[in-house]
Amino acid sequence: MAIKIYLDQGHNPFNPNAGAEGNGLREQDIVFRIGVETAALLNSDPAFEARLSRPTATTQLGSSNASSLAARVQDANAWGADYFISLHTNAYDQASATGSEAFVFSQPSTAASLAADILAALQEETGLFDRGVFTRPSLYVLRRTAMPATLLELGFITNPRDARLMNEQPELFARGIYEGIKRYTGA
C-alpha cells in the first residue's frame, strides 16, 4: 500500500489568500511549481502516492482565507492522507534573513520528526541553512488535519539568493522534500 502524501501548495493564485512577494516573485507561483515537481517525484516512486491542493496554476481554493485553508484540510482528510505537507516561502523585512524552517503542532511528534528529516535533506540539496523545527499549534493546517502535518518555509522570498534559488532551481527543493520523506518513512 502506497504512503499517501498530501502536498499543499500554500496560498491562492489571487486574493483571497494570496502569498508573500519579494524580488519580483510571488510565493504562490514558486510553491506551485515546487509542489508539482515534488508530486512527480513521489508519484514516480511506487512507495508513494501524492496529491496536490492546487493541481493547476489557476486552481483557486475557497472564497476567503478561512475557506481556503479549510478546503485544503478537508481534501487531505477526505482523501485519507498519511502525511500533510504545506509548502510556503518565508518573508522578512531584512533581506539578509535566509534558510529553511518548519512548523508543527507539537513536539516531540511524528510530524516534528518528519519535518526534521525534510529540513536536513533540503539543506543537503539546496545548501540553505536549516533554521529548525518550531511549534505553532495556532496554524489551521496543523490543527485541523487528521494526520501528521508540517508547514515548510522553504526559503525567504525576500532574500535575493533564496528567492533566485527557489525560482530558478525548484527541482532542488522538490528533491530535498522527496529525499526527506523517504528518509523519514524508510521507503
Chart the SSEs and their pairings.
Blueprint: E1 3-9, E2 21-22, E3 25-26, H1 27-43, E4 48-52, H2 65-79, E5 83-90, E6 100-104, H3 110-126, E7 130-135, H4 140-143, E8 149-156, H5 160-168, H6 170-185
Parallel strand pairs: 1-4, 1-5, 5-8, 6-7
Antiparallel strand pairs: 2-3, 6-8
Helix pairs in contact: 1-6, 3-6
Structure description:
The chain is of the alpha/beta class and 187 residues long. Helix content is 42%, strand content 23%. It contains 6 helices and 8 strands. It has helices at residues 27-43, 65-79, 110-126, 140-143, 160-168, 170-185, and strands spanning 3-9, 21-22, 25-26, 48-52, 83-90, 100-104, 130-135, 149-156. The strands form 2 sheets. The protein has a 6-stranded mixed sheet with strand order 4-1-5-8-6-7. The protein has a two-stranded antiparallel ribbon with strand order 2-3. Strand 2 and strand 3 (25-26) form a beta hairpin. Helix 1 (27-43) packs across helix 6.
State the major sheet.
6 strands, mixed
How many strands?
A: 8
Distance between the termini: 11 Å
The gross shape turns out to be: globular
Summed over residues and divided by their number, the pLDDT gives a mean of 97
User: Within the largest sheet, what's the order of strands?
Assistant: 4-1-5-8-6-7
**Which regions contain 5 or more consecutive residues with pLDDT less than 50?**
none
Strand content: 15-25%
Q: Any idea what the radius of gyration is? A: 15 Å
- State the helical fraction: 40-55%
Number of helices: 6
Order of helices and strands: EEEHEHEEHEHEHH
> What structural class results from the helix and strand content?
alpha/beta
